[in-house]
Description:
By secondary structure, the protein is an alpha/beta fold. It has helices at residues 4-23, 27-42, 54-67, 87-96, 104-107, 127-138, 152-157, 171-189, 193-196, and strands spanning 47-51, 80-82, 116-121, 142-147, 160-163.
Amino acid sequence: MGDSEKVKNYLVNYKDRLTSILEQIDTGVFTKVIDAMITAFKNNKTIYVVGNGGSAATASHMQADFSFFVRYFSKFRPRIIALTDNVPIITAVGNDTSFDDIFMEQLRGRFSEGDVLIAISASGNSLNLVKAAEFANSLGGTTIAFTGFLGGKLKEISKIPLYTPSPKGDYGPIEDVHMILNHVIVNYLSTDKDFLAL
């Protein structure tokens, strides 16, 4: 059986780690993320979301929120696609070419100038995300990175790097914060006149 006091202390410690990361978010950069998304929506462009592991789940969750949750406050349906969800394509590219190309290959013939790519990664160094971001940049897209740890390569190459510092490599809180950011964005849009006007 668990030690109640020990569990309580661990919960408090985890909450403090989570709060510390949230307090370090640059609200100026976060505003740029929201503005880029609204601009894409206004111009009927598509937002693509990618990630691995827990970040893949966040990408899928973001698509679900923007595709369905927004019905509570808007008739507008944003075009947002999680490239993490097509298992046949992912396994085909991974098996026949390289796992490093699973997202970039899905962008070929689909991504166009003005589209947005959101890459979610705790380390910021996943090669399949880096290659997708470089590809999106080459086509005149807007690249947004949700990263943690030291920011990694994605922090360097993304046009809007939203960095949530956690130098110790604390995966749980970083992934939690990225999910929270998704919820903050979609709930903020329920109050934003530019989005509601769409």
